[in-house]
Every structure is written in C-alpha cells, then in structure tokens.
Predict the 3D structure of the following.
Amino acid sequence: MRKLIGGAIYLLSGALGVLAFIYPFFTSAGALVQRGAAHAQDAPLLTAGLVGLSVVALLVELQGRTLSAKTVAMLGVLVAFTSVLRFLEVAFPMPGGFSPIFGPIIIAGYVFGGRFGFLMGTFTLLASGLVTGGIGPWLPYQMFTAGWAGLSAGWLGQASEWMKDKMPGPAHAKEEQRMAQDVSDADVIVLCGFGFVWGLLYGAIMNIYFWPFAVGPAAQTWEPGIGLGKTLARYGVFYMVTSLAWDLARAVGNVVLLLALAKPMIKALNRFRRRFHFQVRGSHSDLTGLENHA
Amino acid sequence: MLDARVWFVWALTTLVAASATRSPLYIIVLLLTTMVVGGTCAAGEGRRAPLSPLRFAMVAVPLSALFNALTVHLGDTVLLHLPSWIPLMGGAITLEAVTFGALNGLTLTVIFAAFSVFNQVTPVRDLVKLTPRAFYEGGVVLSIALTFIPQTTRSLQRIREAQAVRGHRVRGIRDWLPIVVPLLVSGLERAMGLAEAMVARGYGAVCSEKQPFRTQALIIVGLMTLLAGWLAYLFNAAWSAPAVAVIAIGAVTIGGAIWLTGRGVNHTVYRARSWTAGDSFALLGCAVTLVAACRGRAALYYSPYPVLTLPSFDPLIGLAMLGLLVPAIVTVAREDAEMHRDPDEGNGFSKQPQTSTDHG
Amino acid sequence: MERYTTDGQSTERRSSSIRIDRLRYTYPGAQQPALSEVCLDIADGEFVLVAGPSGAGKSTLLRCLNGLVPHFTGGRISGRLSVGGHDPLEDGPQALSQVVGFVFQDPEAQFVVDRVEDEIAFALENAAVPPAEMRLRVEEVLHLMDLANLRDRRVETLSGGEKQKVAIATALALRPRILALDEPTSQLDPQSAEGVLQALVRLNQDLGLTILLAEHRLERVLPYVDRLVYLSDANHPPYSGPPRDVLSQVELNPPLVALGKALGWNPLPLTIKEGRRFASQVPRHKAKPAEADRRGMGGRGRRPRNGHGKLGDARHARFAIQDLHYAYNGKPVLQGIDLEIESGELVALMGRNGSGKTTLLKCVVGLLEPEHGGIRMDDESLVGQETAEISRQVGYLPQDPGDLLFADTVCEELAVTLRNHDLLGAPPVQPDDLLARLDLEMLKAAYPRDLSAGQRQRVALGAITVTRPHLLLLDEPTRGLDYEAKRELVRLLREWQEEGTSILLVTHDVELVAQAADRVALLSQGEIIADAAPELLTTSPLFAPQVARLFPGTGWLTVDDALDSVGKNGGATDA
C-alpha cells in the first residue's frame, strides 16, 4: 500500500515534468494564443515554478521525517565528491556539454536505491551551484533532471537484482555472486545505455528553460493556426542548432565515463552498503539478538 | 546586509518583471537597476562571479537575434531574402525579427544579472541556513557537502601525488581510476566516521523513517491539483482565472505538507538573524514592482511586429520598477551611518571583554 | 575557571560512575568476540587510561559507553552497563549524548559545519536547546578549551591539534559528566598532542570530569592518570587499577617504565622526576661501542660515518642534495639545503611543523620543482626528471599510506606499481618474497583498506619498494602506530639498510630516532642547522628521549643502551 502511494507521487511528479517539456508544442492551438500576447510570457515562469514545486514535493516525500545519520553523512560526502569532479570539468576542457556528475549520480542510485539517488542528484546540483555561484531560474530544471536520473537509476538497480533472482540457476550460486559483489559486464552496458539516454534528456529538459525565451509564443500569436507540425519542426531546428551537438557530446561522455568508472565505483560502494543498511530489529529490551542485516 | 531571503525575493521580482515585457525601454530600466544594485552591494564582496553579465550579453543577444531572424519570417522591413528552398530558414530576414531576438537576449541578460548579484551578495552559509525546517536534513547534507568540498580537493591532490610516486602517469581516462577510486573510498570511510560523530552528538535517528500517511496524502492531492490546474490553464483560455486559482490551491497544499513535516523537526537555530527595517523596505520595493508588472500588462506589452515602432513608456510603471533599487539605497544609507558613527562608541556587537583566563 | 553548574531542572545529582558487568560483544560477521566478560568499575571524576595492543578492543569498549555499540554498529551484545545512571543498551546514543561526550581519532572526519562556533552550536541545535542558553554554552565551552580567538575561523584552516580541541569543545557543549576519547592524538604531532592532553588534564582536575582516554603514547599521560585499564586480548579480563600496579603486570612499556622494571626500581617511576631518584644511583660507564657490532632484534645497527654498509649486492648508492632552494608563492621555504646520505645509512630529519621537511621530500621525488640547486643520486641528477621516472629509484611513503591503496588485494597493489613501471614481467624484487619480508603473506588476498594501520603501512611500503629503490623517503611513518608496529617498522628498515638502501626519515618521534637513526639532521626555517650523530639529541631538551633525560651526559639514548652499560641486558626487554 505504501509502495502504491510512493509510486503515485513519482508518477504525478514525473507527469509535471513531462508536461513542462511538451507544452510548447501544443500552445499554438491552445489557450495561450487566445489569451493574447500580453500574457504570453506567463507560461515560462509558471513552468519554472511548477517544475520547482515538483522537485520540492519529491524532496519532501523522499527526505522523509528523518534521514539516518549514515545516509546524511554519505550523501554529504558523495555530493562533495561529485562536486569536486564537476570542478575538474572547469579545469580541464571537456568536449561539449559533458559534465562528469551524471556518472556518479547514476551509480549511486543504482547501488543505494532510488531515494538516495534522487537526493544525491538534487543536492549535487544545489551544492555545486552554491559554490560556483550558479543559482538561477535554471536550477529547478537541473535539480529535477539530476534527481530523476538518480531515482530511475535506483529502479534500474532494483530491476536488475530482481532479474538476477529470476534467472535460472542454483540458489547458492546466486547467493555467492551477491556476496562476491561482482559487477557483471551486462550491468555496465545497461548503465552506459542509461547514461547515454540521460545525457540527451538533460539537454532536452534544460532547453525548456531556454526555449520560451529564445522563440516565445509571442511570435506564434502572429501566425494563428501554425499547427503542431510546424512548431515541432521549429523546435527541431532550434534543438539541432543549439544543443544537439552539445547533448551528444554529453551523452557520449557519460558512456565513456561510466565504462571506465562503473565497475570500481560500484565495488567500492557495495563494500559500504553492508554497513549502511544496518537496521535494529526487535525491541530495545531484546538487544541480545541485534544483527546486521545486509 | 540584507537578509538572504529578501535578496532571493528581489532576484525573483526582477525575473518576473523582466519576463513580463519585451519593451526595450523597460528592459533598460531593469538592467540599470540591477547594475546599480550590483555595483553598490556586491562591490565589497569580491565573491564568485563566474561570468560577468556583460559577457553574457555579448553572447546571448546576438545569438538570440540571429536565431530569431533566421527562423521567423514575419515583419515588414525586409533586410535580405534567403532562397526559399532552404527548409525553415528560407524567406525574408526582417529587421523586426532581429529586434525581437535581440530583445529576448536582453531579457535573458537582465535575469542572469539579477541572479548574479544574488549569488555574490549572499554568503553560502547564509543560504544554507535558510533551509526551512522541513528540509533540515537536506540542510545538514548541504552543510556537510560544503565542508567536505575543500577537504576532498586536498585529498585529490594528495592522492595524485601518492600515485605519481608509484610511477603512475595520467594519459587517458582510465588513468584517472587510481586517483578517483581512493578519493571515493577514503571519502566514504570519512562519512562513516562522521556519521558516528553525529550520532554521538545526539543527531536524530540511527535509522531512516518514512513520511506518515497524512503528509503523503497532502503531497498527492497537491500534485494532482497542480496538474489539473495547469492543464486547464494551457488548454482553455476561458478558464484562466480559475485555473490559476486551482494551481494556487495545489501550491498551498504542498506548502501544507512542508509545514507538517517541519513540525516534526525538533531543533532550534543558533544565530537567527533578526529582521531589520531595511529588510522590510526592500520587500516593499519589490512588492511595488511586482504589482506594477502584473497590473500593467497592457502597458508593458510591446511587439516589433509587423512594423518596427517606437515603444511607449509609462512613467508610472517605470517609477514602480525603481522599487528594485531599495536594496542599494539601504546599503548606502547603512554605510553612511557607519562612517558617521562615533568611533568611541561600542561596535555593533558587544565583544566579550578580554578577561584573563587562568589556566588552573 | 567556571565550574559546571548542575542542571537546574533535575533535583537529583546525576551520578557519573560507570559500572560494566560481564559485557560481551561480537561484531557482525565476526567469529571471535571483541569484548569478553569485561567487568569494570569507574568512580566519579577519575582519569582513566585505556591501553592495550591494537585490536584488543579499546575502541569497542569506549563505544559501548555511549551506545554506539551496538546501536550504530550492529552485532551481538550481552551483559549489563550503567553509565552515569543510564543504560546505553536501552537508551541509545541519542539519549547518552548528554551524559557521555565522545571524541574520535580522525580530526578530519568529525565536523559537519565549517565554522568553529557553528559546529559547536550544531549539537545544541539538535538537542533543541533554547537560543539564549545556546549562546551561554557556546561561550562557556570556547573559554574552557581556550578557543575564543578561533571562534570565527573556518575549521579547515585549523591545525590538527586545534581541530581536536574543537571536537572536544563540541562534545562538552552538551555538558556531559563523562568524556570518552578514542586515540585523539594519534594523528597529531607531539606538540599538538601535548596541548590536547594538557587540556584534558585540566578538564579532569579543575572540573572533575570523568575522562576515559584510549592512547598509545602512554608516557605523556601516565603521571596524571588515576586508573589504568589494560586490555590484552578478548580471552583475558582487563587489568584495572592504579597505573603502577597494572604496569608491573603487563607488557606495554614506555621506555622509562621498561627501564624501571628491568632494574627493579620500586615504586615504578612514571615521570622523569621520579626516575631521577633511581637514575642517580645507577653506575654510569661512558663506554660506547666504537664499532657497530650489535645486530639482532634489540641492538641498534649503527654505522660509523665513513664506512660502507654490508655489501650484498647493494650498489653504492650515494645520495646528495646541494644548495637546494625552493619557494612557494614567493615565500622562500628551502634556503640552501645540503645533505648527503651514504649507502645503507638512515638519516632522520627533524624540525618543527612548517619548517619544510615534507617540501624537501617532495622536491627530491620530483613532485615539486626546486628553483635551483642539485639533487644527485648515483652521480645522476634527479632535478627535472619526471616523478614516475624518479620513483623507480626513490621510494616515497606519504604521511597517509591510505592515499596509495586502491586495489582489491594486497598482491594486486604490488602488481600495480610494477605495471606502472613496465616491470611486471621482470620484477626487481619478487613480490612473494617482499610480502614475506613484510609479514603479509597471510594477507595476500585481503582488501588493503580493511587492514590495521600498521598493516596498511606495510602494504604501502611494499608497493613502493617492489622496484628495489636505492633511496627510501619516509614521511612521519610512526603516526598512529602502537609500540609493536613501531618495532616492526624499525626491523624492516634495518633489513633494507643492510641491503644498501639509503633512508631519509622525516619524523617527530624522538624514540624512533634514538633507535633507528645513524644520523640526525635538524631543519629550521629552510636550512639545516645541525647534522650529526644521534647523540646530538641528548644535548637538546627539546629532542631528548626519555632515557637521555634520565641520564644526562651519558650519551645513552635507548633502554638497551642503558642496560648494556649497566650490564644487565638479558636480551628480553624491548625499547
């Protein structure tokens, strides 16, 4: 039951994000045009606000009432780690829009679960934004995307574990494999694909922030009935001109980074996973039976 | 200095005002106010300014103008004609389109400049302290991250040296592994130590908990309301006002969830900054500008299409926009007062008198 | 000094005695219990020193006091515990934080916020202390620990000793009656360590705080300690009692105590002052061996200045630094260093913090480029060469050996270095032999970072010596090691010396220098102000080891020196 509720929250929040992305394609035939050009600039602001609220809602849900000290400390340190990597990007010129932060975020989500991944994504962007002086109206979009990258990586991790369980084979062999904390090549390939997709998605979502200002709906009010097709085409050109090359560079960069980094990083994180998922079972008066649960 | 929240509101107000208009005169007014405020308040800080607004403008304005000119072929003043077989870009390149693009770029510049000032003027610590109660843990995470970033950088340097001493050369991306992996692992080890230290000092829970159902319900309802309201807003012009109202309800609901969460957090704040008169004035100024931006929509509207005309200027609205200058005025007034203060008088905060502590 | 006021709200006095009854604890996944049938009784206001070899369970015992064990670590626990009237097993660390303050070993890993004042306030914020009282407590604690002038500083700009003081202050903010410290000075240099320990003594004597301190450097605190708890291993109950009683029963001995036990001094002296009484009665012969002839575990293999070491296949590795200059950001750090090291010689480099010792090492190994000056090894100049090239001949052990380690197993670590130098096919030293020498054979497949500090250091040493370097540079190698690990290190160094390796050792540890060094060089303000045999140490009160202070003017540096001269070296006592 709890899972359903959590799922509902993810769904709604994601829907807001998706809507933020696709709404410009529908505006020409829709209400924005009829409302008149004077109010044309409301939409981008509204969008930014709504995406921000979506992130906030997820934060409230996932941050819960209490995060354990271990989670908080791990998050803090990993966010610092990823931010430092991001500064490296400034020091060494990297191709296009490549940002080394997605690799660690996806891997962390993959190993520790969606909740951790989401928090890590949002806070990495926030922390490095704070340090580099990059707070601005683009931040909700950045946090949204990075957070979802981490969140979906968590689902990917769970799915992959579930699939490994379901695969044919003796139970003890699978247990051994889990104990050995080995990362198979298949896992790495999947993660790379993931990184590629999110590299592109990030660029696309960031365009939502930019697009209404570059070619606002104000222009379209003068071409009534411009139609979905032409709007899409115009967006396509916009995308190609401004960001496709950038995004492709980012996506490819993610793949390269993940190929190099995934195995060792997952191994390292897995070692800490044991110590991390400790839970106290039983009542306090029954402490003789406290066990560590992997 | 002014409260960090007030600065945030200021930057947001500039954002809203700039987005509301494409009229060059108003944009210039806003740009000037931003620059004045930046000049007076951020001058002494010397903090992070990654890109100066001027350089941003030099990129954004021409790029925007170019893009708009190439893709939008409306307007009467034709500059040149591209052959129409080129997809999308073929057709007339008009002055109006160029102007519109340039105006878009200018708007972006104003927004960028406003947030640039915000970044420079608010110390990072203050921003982190701003986190509302409900996000207390998030604030702690951010604190830890900010504390560990310099440490991690130093570790990085040390590890690079340590690996170099083993004969390691950095040639390709794989060669970064022996540097990145120890960095990660030592960071995680430190995290475990830090968690222990936090728990030993009484930090909250040893285990994470989930939100109670009440809060989750509020979040779901809030999100659904937001979604519904937004869809209505987008697809039916007649429902504008009620749609906005619905969206507002959704936002309030989520605010309620935040408030509920905040109630469960039990902690006090050490150095709460007290609200000053300057803060109130600044907020007032922003409010004036906001009201003008919302009410004066018709006056703010300007479009170069179909023919380039001289934009109109309503002095009242222009004046209202000067409300954004209040932070600069407050800062200058304060500096003035400090200079004229009697130097024998005690400083603003009473320092501890230097007692001789005996080391018994 | 302000006294702590009892909490106005509670009318009963909180007792601060600690009672442990048959405590037994096993870490999760471990075979052997870490603590077994521990019974302990500690009265209010005692200063307790918890000692024992590495892995004996000192940290575990301390963590039981505030409930970190088992609430944070998991595992199985049984027995009863009463700490200041509370039961940590039942109440958990959050409740105990106001009864027991805890300070950890690593000064880098205890701080959440970057400013000193805010960090102290963090604990108070968590406890939801009202703001007015918070300010009072912060002031209190800043003055207690003498940190008032550091209040606005960022924590990362503080020295290690200052950081630990801030950590103590943070623990004290919640007004606990008991303070538990887990090796707080092991990462610090002797001066900072002194400062921290003195602060603790003050807290105990002036405020009556009960203090439990786990430490390796016994000699500093012994005089102030009311009770010594010695944990030998999990199967033997801990020794607990006044320091002299426990010391006479156990093996752990700082030099003064070792000497006292060997010569039968009674009551066992704990300070130099007490020792002098006995020392004046010891007949002193100035006899010092002219030729280095004492080999073996206890002896010091000292070589005369101009001789050559035992030549196996050791090449004549002569190392020289000439007029080395280095400046950082315009400020001169090294101003004309001249140093020569023969083959098989061990030179100790000492000096205050910031005098440029580490900078010198880094210049030698190529991490920093000197402004001018020469560094020659085997008549070949090292200046301007790439670090990766230099490291084939020169091994450098950084202050934190953990910076080197990233492989999955110990033997993989050695292979990494070989691969870096393209020597995997033809290693100058067989990895297995090296591992045997380092006493790591059993741990070949272990994950290096899980090992103890001493073992980690040996793995790192393996990683840098697998190319058979002619010169070894060691930067503060004894930080955080217990007596046993130090002895191991000295033995290893001696073995390498006998093969002809030159060693340059940067350290603060006077006892180590007394045992292992052939020569001592003192670095101050960028210049070498003294360069002589270790007897130099005896002349300066700053650097004299305990034995030298006890017997001034004799030139004795270690326990063995003294015992040999007296004629009582039966061979068993360790220095």
User: Anything to note?
Assistant: The two ends of chain B are 42 Å apart (CA to CA).
